[in-house]
Design brief:
Distance between the termini: 100 Å
Structural class: alpha/beta
CATH topology of the largest domain: Na+/H+ antiporter like fold
Number of helices: 28
Helix content: 55-70%
Number of strands: 10
Number of domains: 3
CATH architecture of the largest domain: Up-down Bundle
Radius of gyration: 36 Å
Strand content: 5-15%
Shape: elongated
CATH class of the largest domain: Mainly Alpha
Largest sheet: 6 strands, parallel
Length: 656
């Protein structure tokens, strides 16, 4: 088994490199790898069972992660007409396939099997393609996901029908019990998703160990898959249901990040296994019938989806593109073919045709999905009368996130303060934190908070970081902060990124990585001390604020300089700048009744009076012999030091 895995990886690398240079999807490269080294190709791997086990794990992981992305809430909000289209597609395709088989001379049982087989599409390949193209939440994506999901659940009654036709002892009671078991399991899973699992996860997360979340995720994923298999559903459907369940918790971004690496590994083995199924010798012996069968299925399924969708008011472009995406025969059809073979419903020849057609359609699906958008747009341009339907059916889904929107990363003291100010300012915000206890308390307080590590790309994608206008990073981990800034800037180049760091030495690197504003704690403390000291010397508040902004505007350069003499000189330069200050004369001031020349406030070499306001009106200069009165406002011009002396003299109160 290890030899086979090493061989698959070794051959996949050059094939993927070639497909990348040809601008072809990697999924097609994996399928081609399986075709080359499989038992019907070069024969380097003869025991396909080893790969099939890993491939089934890959499908489970793939459908689980897609269930996380789709979410149960969004699925329940899907338009009813999408489910009607899905039901119509299944019934219509099965009926057309059965009638075609009867016309070719097959019996009723074999014809029903053919109809069921061609009605299935590949959830694994199609949903993977939608996720890679970021189309899951588009109108097209919602339509295709709904049809795929409905098909996957339809396999249960199909298997029951095939079993009934193949087993003469089957009765209606057994079928009814199976359907009831599926319904009961569905209700139990829904109740668990809403009321049980969230509470269990919150208690487990008190441990605050990443391995706990990973192990619990694996337990839920495979446990649900096992339960669904007991009632006749496939493992993949159970994994999809598990993903839907966990998507309702605040921990789903981190859950997705934990399973993503395993999904990439095992799902690639699934696509390799698909390529190994195609018997090239059988295709070479019967080229025309096999190709005609495969092409006919691709065309018929595309047209059926197109007809059903346009009849329901979906635009031509979306209908045609969705039909092309769903044109293949799915991997779950292998279950139907195996069940039909065991029941003696299909002959060996029909079995080979079905396997060959299924494998061929699966292999060309990645290429079809790559060119389907261009084909759909061309058809839309040629038939402009569908423009009205386009406008009506493709309204963009309303975003649940208003504009502007801020993401606060880290919900400590700084995060709390930012959230409080944003709330008071009626600015929408969400929170991301990696402490489960913090997440739990914030949820209890009514905050919209996600659990996850900001330095993980999968977490950022799951919370849709590109939808935020501004982000505030208030975490204390310097390494995670640097990586997060780089990742966020790559995913959301237009966001305004404010970053907190402990040390000023991090400022330049964080700005280079993409931060717009970096706030170092050690020198913010220095600025506070500096500000309080200047307040003590009666420097005007707006002047102090100006100086602080000068320091910040130079990325704290005045305070970061290593030469102490340079720091002193810089501060002295600030203090010696010429400034203007207005001083009100309050009751008890020792300057009342004195002339300004006696106070030495008319000397150009010192602090100079440039205006005197009395009863809100300016007096005419010169001011040498102007007598100071109560409630006058004296406007002074001078440097910081001279202004401080003058303000002290004019404001000092006489104690009676």
């Amino acid at each position: 088994m290890l030899t086979d895995f090493v061989l698959i990886v070794a051959i996949s690398l050059p094939v993927l490199f070639l497909f990348r240079r040809l601008n072809l999807p990697p999924t097609a490269g994996f399928i081609m790898t399986g075709l080359l080294i499989g038992p019907y190709g070069l024969g380097w791997i003869k025991q396909i069972e080893h790969v099939e086990v890993a491939a089934e794990v890959g499908v489970v992981l793939l459908l689980f992660s897609i269930g996380l992305e789709v979410s149960l809430t969004r699925l329940l909000q899907t338009s009813k007409r999408f489910y009607l289209i899905a039901a119509g597609q299944i019934v219509g395709t099965a009926l057309c396939g059965s009638l075609a088989a009867i016309a070719l001379g097959f019996g009723t049982g074999a014809a029903v099997v053919v109809g069921f087989v061609v009605a299935m599409s590949s959830s694994a390949i199609v949903l993977k393609g939608l996720a890679d193209r970021e189309e899951l939440e588009s109108p097209l994506g919602r339509l295709v996901v709904t049809i795929c999901l409905t098909q996957d659940f339809a396999i249960v009654p199909m298997l029951l029908v095939i079993g009934f036709m193949g087993d003469k002892q089957a009765d209606l009671r057994a079928i009814t019990q199976s359907i009831a078991a599926v319904g009961a399991l569905g209700i139990a899973l829904y109740l668990a998703a809403r009321h049980v699992l969230p509470q269990v996860i919150r208690r487990l997360m008190v441990v605050n160990t990443p391995e706990v979340l990973l192990l619990f995720t694996i337990l839920v994923m495979f446990g649900t898959a096992w339960l669904t298999s007991l009632v006749g559903l496939s493992l993949a459907i159970g994994a999809f249901a598990a993903g839907l369940i966990l998507s309702e918790t605040e921990y789903y971004p981190q859950i997705y990040a934990e399973v993503a690496p395993f999904r990439a590994l095992f799902s690639s083995l699934f696509f390799v296994a698909v390529g190994m199924l195609l018997d090239l010798k059988f295709v070479a012996t019967h080229p025309a019938p096999v190709l005609l069968f495969a092409v006919g299925i691709l065309a018929a399924k595309t047209l059926i989806v197109l007809f059903m969708s346009t009849s329901a008011g979906i635009s031509l472009r979306v209908s045609l593109q969705g039909g092309l995406y769903l044109a293949q025969i799915g991997e779950f059809s292998f279950l139907l073919i195996a069940a039909a073979t065991q029941g003696g419903l299909v002959t060996e020849g029909l079995f080979q045709y079905l396997i060959a057609a299924t494998s061929l359609t699966l292999m060309v699906t990645p290429l079809i999905m790559q060119y389907a958008p261009r084909i759909a747009w061309s058809a839309h341009a040629r038939f402009p009368w569908f423009m009205r339907a386009e406008a009506q059916s493709e309204d963009a889904p309303k975003s649940s996130r208003p504009v502007p929107a801020v993401l606060i990363v880290g919900y400590g003291v700084n995060g709390h303060n930012v959230a409080r100010v944003l709330k008071e300012s009626s600015i929408y915000y969400e929170i991301l934190d990696s402490n489960p206890e913090t997440v739990r308390r914030a949820r209890e307080d009514g905050e919209l908070i996600h659990y996850g590590e900001v330095a993980r790309t999968e977490v950022l994608r799951q919370i849709e970081v590109e939808g935020f206008d501004s982000l505030v990073l208030a975490i204390s981990d310097a390494g995670a902060t640097r990586r997060a800034v780089s990742l966020i800037r790559g995913l959301n180049p237009r966001a305004h990124l404010v970053v907190r760091t402990r040390f000023v030495k991090e400022v330049e690197e964080l700005e280079r990585l993409g931060a717009n504003v970096v706030v170092p704690e050690e020198f913010e403390t220095s600025l506070r001390i500096f500000s309080e000291l200047l307040h003590h010397y009666r420097i005007p508040p707006h002047i102090i604020q100006m100086q602080i902004e000068v320091v910040r505007g130079h990325s704290y350069g005045l305070l970061r300089t290593r030469a102490s003499g340079t720091v002193v000189e810089s501060i002295q330069e600030l203090l010696l700048r010429q400034l203007v200050e207005a001083v009100p004369i309050m009751e008890g001031s020792p300057a009342i009744g004195k002339e300004l020349c006696d106070l030495k406030l008319t000397d150009p070499q010192g602090c100079l009076v440039i205006s005197v306001l009395r009863d809100s009106l300016p007096l005419r200069p010169p001011f040498d012999h102007t007598t100071v009165q109560e409630n006058d406002i004296i406007v002074l011009y001078g440097n910081h030091l001279d202004l401080d002396r003058a303000v002290h003299m004019l404001s000092q109160r006489v104690h009676k």
